[in-house]
Amino acid sequence: MNVLDAPLDKPGQPGGPGDPADPGQPDDPNGPAEAGPGAVARKPRRAWSPRGFVAALTALVLGGAAGVLLYFGIAARLERTPQWAYDTLDWVQTHKWSEQSVWVGGAIAAVLGLWLLVLAWTPGRRHLLPLQPVGPDMTAYMTRRTAGNLLRHTALSSTGVLDARVRVTRRKAVLRVDYHFRDPDELHDELETALRARADALLLARVPRVDVRLQPSSGR
Amino acid sequence: MRRIANRILLTVVGLGLLVGGLAVVARSRGWLHDQLGDLLRTRDKPLITPSQTERLTDESWWWWVAFGVPGLLLVICLWWFFAQFRRRPVRVIRVADTSEDAGGGPSGLGTGFGLVGDDADTITVSGYALADAIADDLARIPGVESAHAQLVVRRPGPKLKLAIRTEAGAEPRDVLLAVQDEVVEHGRDAVELHRLPVEVELRNAGGLPRRHLQ
Questions:
Q1: pLDDT tens for residues B108-140?
Q2: CATH code of the domain containing B113
């Protein structure tokens, strides 16, 4: 049985999805502006990555180092210290703090630490753009490639446009448009108006600034 | 939870590496010589002197530290590593408790989610079946090329994660409204969940919409 085929004749529960007084339910399915106070109040946030790969890698390296130290300790206690452990101890006891390899190693560790801090404090998932929610419990994202494709389709529907290449960031959408047989100023104005309207309609939480760069086709 | 734990632990490790690395560089290069005095005057000495090693190993606490710290670190790192591969799909959703004393669930009708026993008064739905049914409903929305749905365990209730691939010319607004009004509401009502947070990731097929190809 498809559970979604279950009958929907239940009376609305207080505050539940069927409750007509529920402020989170949009009466008019026209978009976020009409989605109710609950939806409007919630500001869309960027997607935060769990940083699973970096965490697994860090855990593996740290755990490996801890395992080696533990083995070193146990082996030394049992007086079965391997030769490589003696060599390591010998290296540490014969090299001075002022040597280049020591401070280069310290610098590498500091850079690695800074990199981990940056990863820990930044959202990641840069390919996802947050969208305005259409419902009270909905979080929606669109890939930057998707936004770029939709803007490209709009550009291609203008007369005289041969091709368009799009790069979308959170703040800006840059379109490089190849054209022919059109007045460039007129085409620029037309594209800018159409693309701005399109960018507004994409439901992006932060509408990117549209930058159109026209390039006449070489076969003109 | 995993995201927060990962970020806290990455911060701790990152801070440790940054501070330790800078301390090594400072000692090696003789920076902050005036402020730290004797510590930095030892830059011409070995990293560890044999006398330091002997002094350490003569201490009674040394072997406890030598075994305890790496051992504890190893356990924490193993837990942290394997936590990255743990997935928490919702296996069973308790739809309704038809017994008279029902009413402990979040919607007041004995609903909720989680593992339930073989109580004859309880109706349960497989989380996988619900996710598949939602994915099937999503695929029927005009403009949707393919869809994947997954119910994952979150506090206080399950969360629905949707990955939707739309056709080239599909309007994101129309698709999202259809997802919210037709699919999510329907699924939520079907299993009598009070709330079902949804996370949607929209992608579209490459290429041009049909109108450009005609």
A1: 333 344 444 445 567 777 888 888 889 999 999
A2: 3.30.300.30
- Least confident window among A37-46, B24-33, B184-193: A37-46
Q: Residues of A with CB below 8 A from B43's CB? A: 96-98
CATH of A130-216, one of 3.20.20.140, 3.30.300.30, 3.30.70.1350, 3.60.20.10: 3.30.70.1350
ipTM of this model? 0.74
* Nearest residue, CB atoms, B22 vs list A2, A98, A110: A110
Q: Among candidates B211, B191, B204, which has minimal Cα distance to B92?
A: B191
Out of B27, B62, B83, a domain closes at: B83
Contact A54 B22 (CB under 8 A): no
The confidence score (pLDDT) of residue A117 equals 97
Distance CA B15, CA B119 (A): 51
pLDDT band at B57 (very low <50, low <70, confident <90, very high): confident
A197 touches chain B (CB under 8 A): no
Residue of chain A whose alpha carbon sits nearest to that of B162 = A140
Assess whether B102 and B201 both reside in one domain: yes
Shortest Cα distance, chain A CAs vs residue B11, angstroms: 5
Contacts of B209 (CB under 8 A, 6+ apart): A153, B167, B168, B169
DSSP structure class, residue A183 = -
Domain that holds residue B30: 2-83
- Is the torsion defined by CA of B10, B12, B18, B20 positive or negative? negative
